[in-house]
Amino acid sequence: MSDFSNGGAAHGTAMARTKMLVVCAVCIAMAFVLNQISLFRMPQGGSVTPFSMLFVVLAGYWLGPVWGIITGVSMGLLNAMTGSTVHPINPVVGFVLDYPVAFGLLGISGFFRKMKFGLQIGYVAGVFGRFVSVFMSGFIIWGGVLSSADVITGEFLMAAAGFSAVYNATYIVPEMIATLVVISLPAMRHAVDEVTKIVLPPAEYAWLVAKNKGSISINARIVTGAVVGAVGGLGFVLAAYIRRLEEIAIIQYTTNHELLTEMPRIIRTIERNTQQILALQAVGVIFIALGAALLISVLAPKNET
After folding, report:
1. Are 224 and 206 members of one domain?
2. What is the dihedral sign for C-alpha 190, 195, 198, 199?
3. Which residue range is the domain that position 302 belongs to?
4. pLDDT band for position 216 (50/70/90)?
5. What is d(CA 148, CA 140) in angstroms, rounded to the nearest whole number?
6. 70 and 197 fall within a common domain
7. Cα 246 from chain centre
8. What is the pLDDT of residues 133-188, one digit of tens each?
């Protein structure tokens, strides 16, 4: 059987390529619509959405990495052109790394489609790629701001890296975990399988299903429950870390008289961040409860499917 992992290599006809374009367009549309629904939004941009990243990953899973990356880049450009936040300090870096590059990297899921549990593994790889991109954006922007402000020493560049990692993890990681749980459910796996049957030719569908064949074992549920619970606990740690960074910023501003004029803006930011910290703690409670439920489910295992 031919290897179909190179995207459109197995689709030589114009009709097949048109079908692939339609699939990409539908994935872009679904991702864009879901991306407009914010379950949790950070004050400087970035939000937890109801599975918007999944549809870009699915494009890579169904059609291969090239089409997945094209879908992600298109989604990122569309998102950037419709009112999304671009940081005013360095708009070029913010635009490139936060949108076309970040969303395009979701499409690397296609490189993992021939593995067992390829959708889940590809999703994690794609989301990690997006995280690296937005982390670099935040580090370059905030690192430049901190290093140019003479009141802050070089050690605070590490704080910039930590802040960027924590800040972006607070909205990317919860959505990643929630999506992994959902796509691992038998009903969702069946739904994806049925759509895959429509999207791909019969031979390629059979090849992809054979490569991804597997079930969620008891051990996998234990690991997933432990990871989800740990992420919930991490939510509380991240909330405390963000609060600590705010305290450091306040100290820096209050000890430098030239920056006292910025205090009203800092106070408003802290008020907004307080709401976000409370929301982060609430998300932590939800994930801890979800992790506990998965672990408890192991005590009364059902027949695997």
Report:
1. no
2. negative
3. 218-305
4. low
5. 12
6. yes
7. 25
8. 998 888 887 766 555 544 444 555 566 677 777 778 878 888 888 888 888 777 88
113 lies in the same domain as 260: no
Q: In which residue are the tokens 């992992």 written?
A: 5
> Is residue 162 located within the same domain as residue 242?
no
Asked if 27 and 144 sit in the same domain, the reply is yes
d(CA 72, CA 105): 7
Digit-coded pLDDT (tens) for 116-126: 788 888 898 89
Q: How far apart are CA 135 and CA 168, in angstroms?
A: 7
pLDDT tens for 230-274 read 767 777 777 776 677 667 666 666 666 655 566 666 666 666 667
Mean pLDDT of the chain: 75
Tokens for 161, please give them: 């890296």
Q: How confident is the model at residue 304 (pLDDT cuts 50, 70, 90)?
A: very low
Residues 24 and 127 in one domain: yes
Question: Could you tell me which residues come within 8 angstroms of residue 240 by beta carbon, excluding any fewer than 6 positions away?
Answer: none
Q: 180 forms bridges with which residues in the sheet? A: none
Q: Is 242 exposed, middle or buried (0-12, 13-18, 19+ CB in 10 A)?
A: buried
Helix ranges, 149-217 (H): 155-183, 186-199, 202-212
With beta carbons less than 8 A apart as the criterion, state whether 119 and 183 touch.
yes
Rounded CA-CA distance 22/25 in Å is 5
Alpha helix (H) ranges present in the chain? 14-35, 52-63, 65-80, 91-98, 100-104, 118-148, 155-183, 186-199, 202-212, 218-254, 263-297
Query: What torsion do the CA atoms of 116, 118, 119, 121 make, to the nearest 10 degrees?
Result: 110
Whether 1 is in a domain gets the answer no
Distance, in Å, from the CA atom of 41 to the CA atom of 97, rounded to the nearest integer, reads 19
